[in-house]
Amino acid sequence: MGAIFLWKRNKRHTATEKAQAKIDTAANSYTSIEEILAPASLLIDKDKIFYEELKLAIWNYFHNRLPYSNTPINKTQLANTLAQKGIEQSLVGILMEIIHQCEAGIYTNVEMNLDKTELFQTARQTLKEIDAALNKQ
Q1: pLDDT in tens, 10-47
Q2: Which of 43, 69, 98, 113 has the smallest number of Cβ neighbours within 10 A?
Q3: CA 123, CA 115: separation in Å to the nearest integer?
Q4: Cα 10 to Cα 15: distance, rounded to the nearest angstrom
Q5: For residues 98 and 39, what is the distance between their CA atoms, to the nearest angstrom?
């Protein structure tokens, strides 16, 4: 009877370790910028949905790349964190403008006279430049 108990306990412990390893692997795996931006790229011809997806992609990128990935942050905190990590102020400014344009596209009924393809390309390039700077550290 004791042997069965020990066998079940060991089996449960091994399963827990395997589950934790999967979580750790996912948390430590790097998702490319292209993968993160893919949903937004498919929705460029949609208005609010495109802006929602682009904004979500940007936040997902930073959620994966910055140390406080389990803590919600706002734009000011993000800008401050990037500045502390030595990201050029001009890149941070471009990023904040992209997020602002996405929010305007999501939350207002104003007709956006933006070229969404250009906005998407700017977001991709900005994230790539930030990524390169973060990888140098």
Answers
A1: 555 554 554 444 334 434 456 788 999 999 988 988 88
A2: 113
A3: 12
A4: 9
A5: 17
| Residue 95: both structure tokens together | 């990023």
Residue 11 and residue 14: Cα distance in Å, rounded? 5
The pLDDT tens digits of the residues spanning 114-123 come to 789 999 999 9
- Token pair of 81 as six digits: 């964190």
What count of other Cβ atoms lies within 10 Å of the Cβ of residue 71? 9
Domain range summary for the chain, segments of one domain joined by +: 1-30, 31-135
Contact 65, 29 (CB under 8 A): no
* Residue 30: strand, helix, or coil: coil
Q: Would you call 65 helix, strand, or coil by DSSP?
A: helix
- Helices and strands, number each (H, E), in the chain: 6, 0
Helix (H) or strand (E) holding 116: helix 116-135
